[in-house]
Predict the 3D structure of the following.
Amino acid sequence: MGSTAASLFDRAVARVRPVDRGAAARTAEHLDRLTKPQGSLGRLEETAIRLSAIARMSPPPIPAPATVAVFAGDHGVLERGVSPWPAEVTAQMVANFSAGGAGVNVVAACVGADVVVVDVGVATAIPEVPGGSRIRDMNIRRGTADLSGRPAMTIGEAGRALDAGVTVAADAASSGARCLLTGDMGIGNTTPSAALIAVLTGRPVREVTGRGTGIDDERWEIKVAVIEEALGRHVLDPGMPGDPGDPLTVLASLGGLEIAALVGFIVGGASLGLPIVLDGVIAAAAALVAVGIAPDVTDYLIAGHRSAEPGATAALDHLGLEPILDLDLRLGEGTGACLALPIIQASARFVRDMATFESAGVSADHA
Amino acid sequence: MGSTAASLFDRAVARVRPVDRGAAARTAEHLDRLTKPQGSLGRLEETAIRLSAIARMSPPPIPAPATVAVFAGDHGVLERGVSPWPAEVTAQMVANFSAGGAGVNVVAACVGADVVVVDVGVATAIPEVPGGSRIRDMNIRRGTADLSGRPAMTIGEAGRALDAGVTVAADAASSGARCLLTGDMGIGNTTPSAALIAVLTGRPVREVTGRGTGIDDERWEIKVAVIEEALGRHVLDPGMPGDPGDPLTVLASLGGLEIAALVGFIVGGASLGLPIVLDGVIAAAAALVAVGIAPDVTDYLIAGHRSAEPGATAALDHLGLEPILDLDLRLGEGTGACLALPIIQASARFVRDMATFESAGVSADHA
């Protein structure tokens, strides 16, 4: 099953095309004919140009409807005390998503995005929610192993999680989604994210490790030490076949099931020619892995916001992405990606709907 | 007529109440009971708290529907060469607003805001737009005088523009608006805005003068020199009765008709207990005047975005406002305020719609 499943991801990787620079150039030219000073839409002009390149069309199609996929998983490293929250909260929050009461439900309703919740690695029983929306059960393993002592998962498990993500992206596209947003839930998951970001950007652990849900100095020192231990263990003996610098090996060794699923979701979305809006630090870590495996994926990514986590900024810098929003958010779940969606959609609407100097009879010639 | 009209503004000033700190505190407490790490909604938590204080209710009402009022006026100082665009473009752009083809029309449609266009000081004939939406004719004067040589307008004209703004705010509220957004159109209007900001913040002209629609170094030097000339003229002989430091005198001497109308719109909105979302540098200049006259207005303001104009940041710093967006926009028209609207609305929806730890059965207690 591992090998059949793995091939979904491999096929998605093979199908990722370079974006269309010609369409991007046509949109850039058109933007200069619109009734506005040149460049005055600032970052929205770059966003519209990127949407054109992704969709291979000018003007770009409006990236709607949108689907935010929230992948949930637990983390063995929690036993090392990296977070004050118990693993049960992952399952409880999944139930909260089902009931529609979480932050991502609220903001997705605001911006008109569909929410898909996928259990790829929740460790504890998900409380029943009478009348709640469906949780997609693609559970691969009830939480990862403690990555400080051994690989978080096997290559086979990582492959199944990658495939789950590809499947969710394909299903969203089949249901009509024209924009994919990343979401995640997993108590402790800023720890594997920081580990992945440290390895894949080459930055020191202390620089890319943040406060997660808001831990104190003492717990932060523990978190840094645990991640350094994990990196030492990984480099000395990744515990699995393959080069310890290979992104897939790094993902299996130091990642999480929901992170692996996000990698699949990102690559799957790119293979379908859809823009992918990244949420926070978990998504940024997944994007580093995705781009490590399929470099052309970078151009399909839009960073929704700058998370308060320092690792997010390190990862986005490495990817050459400048986020749309900077609101000091650190909730995760996909909330920051959802909040950026109206702005991303507006960037495409400007190109499609604004008058040109010529059509509006506005003087473009000036001294 | 001047005095009857002026009393509208004066009455609005008298009706501005301090916001409700109790409602703000109740929303702050409620935010900590929602199913999220404390403070993890970052800037949105401050925004929700502010909306509560303004509306005197917790949870705050969703600030919708929203109206963006675009006030248009021309500027005598244009003859000094501060902008490469001719004054006719103001009238042409007003026609473009009527036809629905401008940036603000597009983004207002995206975010569900009504657009109201008001001519308070357009100098040239507005081209007819068959089937276009109505332009509200409240023209007070066909453009200001050149503020570098004499007061831009009389105190009476400024008073009528203030009243026009109050009227537009009141009419929007009567039509159901629960959130007011500022917009402006006026070729050359970053020049009076920079002059107002320099006087009212005490910052050097060179620090608060920007590139407007994108002028070159040579023209920027002219713009700075013209503003310095205007400030010298104002301080030596404001050309009108009253203290040259009085905000209303400063407004009449160095402002613009659309800027004065925005001051009225802002104070009018605050007097009605509505949140006012500021667009860019023109709105920031108007807000400085409004707060100079009625200090309690500050707490009714939300800065939609950080304009690329340096004067905007100087003014917002002076007002103690941190903008929601930072997208390098410099289009004006209300576009930045509109783009921030979904985020502001989402901040209130989080408070109203998110589950609490107790209601969702999520463990709030942790080690």
